[in-house]
Amino acid sequence: MPAHALPLDPAHPIDPSAVGVLDRPGPADAGPPVVLLHGWTGSKEDFSAVVDALSADRRVLVPDLPGHGDTPAIGGESAQAIGRVAAWVLAWLDAVGVGDVHVVGHSLGGLLAQRVAFLAAHRVTSLGLIGTGLGAPGEATVDRAVRVATTAREDGMAAAWRTVTGGVDVVEDDPRGDFVRNRFLSLAPATLIGGARALISAAPLGAFLRGIDVPVLVCHGDGDDSWLPHEQRLLARTIRGAQYVVIPDALHSPAVENPQGLLDVLQPFLAAADVR
Q1: Could you tell me the pTM of the whole model?
Q2: Going by C-beta distance under 8 Å and a sequence separation of 6 or more, which residues neighbour residue 110?
Q3: Strand (E) or helix (H) holding 246
């Protein structure tokens, strides 16, 4: 049995029609597709502003990860463990007929992308890491995640949302405010709590990353405070030959805050990896 199948229930194979996904076909003569992996409490819509431009060069797939968006959960809190979700990603790629693939992940999705590469390095054409680190983030981000998860367990999702926003129901200056709020409130507490546990307990894959033999991009917004800049520079220094870029006018989510800035970095990186 392949390693990526071990954490999954063989009695319940993945049904691609049950997975929420943005799937853009790309040109007929394109190279490997790219899969984009969202972060904790996120969804496929986090990449909405970049998928069309990316699909000018290749097929683009953006799944809702288990328990998020339009994809059902695959279990309780433990099902959000990074190894289990990485195995799910690989099994889902199998189910939709994708072999070699560029893997790009944001935040917790960046940790997930690293684990996908660890489990199936032979399938990964390149690795793109956006706003993430070697492992668990720093103390301030861990503290926020613990507060949100604890509130969800003790007082419910509405109270957890107010913990995220500092006590308000809708973030007035966020044009996606209603969508983000409703998306958060639709999460099962087990998905939220399990994701927080995965985030704060993430173990570095330093030895693997030091020897990885594919192109790697590490990038983040100039105002990112989820993994601090020195943590993300450390990630880049750990990986031989990694490209490190700071994206201007962005915080933790460049695909939302400065999508063109992200595209200016990501598109040439993927194109160069195609011809490596």
Answers
A1: 0.94
A2: 37, 39, 129, 130, 131, 132, 133
A3: strand 243-247
Q: Please, are residues 149 and 135 in contact by the beta-carbon 8 Å criterion?
A: no
- Mind listing the pLDDT tens digit of every residue in the chain (276 residues)? 333 333 455 446 799 999 999 999 999 999 999 999 999 999 999 999 999 999 999 999 999 999 999 999 999 999 999 999 999 999 999 999 999 999 999 999 999 999 999 999 999 999 999 999 999 999 999 999 999 999 999 999 999 999 998 876 665 566 678 899 999 999 999 999 999 999 999 999 999 999 999 999 999 999 999 999 999 999 999 999 999 999 999 999 999 999 999 999 999 999 999 988
Helix (H) or strand (E) holding 165: helix 157-165
Class of the CATH domain delimited by 3-138+202-274: alpha beta
